[in-house]
Each structure stands twice: as C-alpha cells, then as structure tokens.
Amino acid sequence: xxxxxxxxxxxxxxxxxxxxxxxxxxxxxxxxxxxxxxxxxxxxxxxxxxxxxxxxxxxxxxxxxxxxxxxxxxxxxxxxxxxxxxxxxxxxxxxxxxxxxxxxxxxxxxxxxxxxxxxxxxxxxxxxxxxxxxxxxxxxxxxxxxxxxxxxxxxxxxxxxxxxxxxxxxxxxxxxxxxxxxxxxxxxxxxxxxxxxxxxxxxxxxxxxxxxxxxxxxxxxxxxxxxxxxxxxxxxxxxxxxxxxxxxxxxxxxxxxxxxxxxxxxxxxxxxxxxxxxxxxxxxxxxxxx
Length: 290
Description:
alpha+beta; Immunoglobulin-like; four-stranded antiparallel β-sheet; 8 helices
C-alpha cells in the first residue's frame, strides 16, 4: 500500500543495535506506519479509541518490537491486536481504549517499531505521526440527574409490565380451572399418510448473502463490508475469538477454499482506512462467493 504511506507519517530513524538485539529483529518492508484517534475532542471520563496501523509486504502472524507512546494522561482499557494477511502482505492494527483523566491539550507522541530494513540489511526505527487532542471537561452534573430519571422511568415501566404479565397469567389459570369441561369424544381413526419425499427448500442463508453482496456493490461502505464479513465468518463456523489465520489453520472452509479467499478480501475492506474503503470493497466483490 505505497499510496497509503504518503498519507501517514512514516519516518525512519536509523539505529545501530548490535549482537543478539539486532538478531531478534524481523526483516520487514514497512510500507505504512501510522496512528489515529476516533475523535480529536474526547471528554474527561469518556472512553475513545487510539489505533496504530501498519502495512508490511511480508506475511506475518503478529507485529513485534512496537513501543507505545507515553499514555500516563489516560486510564487504559481494552487492547485489541490484529494482523490480517492480504494478497499484498499483511495489515496489522492495535486499538487501545483510553479514558482521559484531566481536561486540556494533550499530544500523544509517536509510537515506534524496530525492524531490519531489507534495502541495507541494517536495523531501523520506524515512527508514526503524533496525535494532538483537545480534551474537554466532564459533562455537567445534570447529565447524571438525567440518567437517574431515565433509569427510574425504565425500572418503573419494567415493574409495571411484570405486574401486568402476572395478572394475565393468574387470570388464565383461574379461567382454566373454573371453565366447564367438554365431554371427551373418541378421535376417528385415520390412516397414516404415505410419506412423500419433499425437495429441500432453497438455502435462506445463501439468498441473504447474495443480498448483502448486492447491497455492498450498490453502496461500498464499511458497515456493508462488515455485514458481508460477518456472514462469511458465520458460514465458516468461526468463533468470536478466531482470526483468519485460525480458520485457515483448522481448514474451516473444507472443500470450499474460495470462502477463505472471500473472507481475506472483505477483511481488507473492513479494516482499512476510510479513504480506501470503497476501493478495497470493489476489489473484493469478484471474490464474494460461497
């Protein structure tokens, strides 16, 4: 993804580690390495997501030797790491949930990654761009009062619905116990019908999948790409924590390897930067078959 590198700060600082430290580094063609936030104006106490992305030409299972910037101004939450193989290498990302501690202007410094530069076989240090945030103060106390009133309303409504359901059940039981019983009539003997083999109905899932693909073709957006990805993972029997590499390892596609190719193509459209969603979605369309 050479053109993506032009949009993301991709600085190489040559270093000279020697001995065992240099041998521990991977040899990587680093095409892009950047950092972004889902908002530049978070609020104190409100979580937001900081994402570090990288694209390398090699096929790797995980991206090592990445050093995060100083995040002491935040409380850290979930940390999700993902590497997805593509036809052009590997797309890796790390998303961290952060909660600001205090209001003000905070600049998150660059994240760094050490690797061997294939062009000169020397250790190099790659750095992302920095991210500048304007952190707002916590919402006014009236928000807490609004939440309290909202909770009170819904709790009252749930209690009312529960009591209404209880009254209906008690009335039904009383009706069944007090109504007069009709005399029993012997059921006529009817010969059992001869079973007839019926044709298997068409698969609803396949028709739904085709509809999702057509919707993506008409409107190549990230939500529609994610819907197609979810359907493909369902068809492969993927568990929530399984990655694409896990599915390939356990041969989840069986005798339909095109499903893995389709999933690999749609994941590229699902997790790329916003500017490339439409392009990657259209490139994935020829692969989207069951």
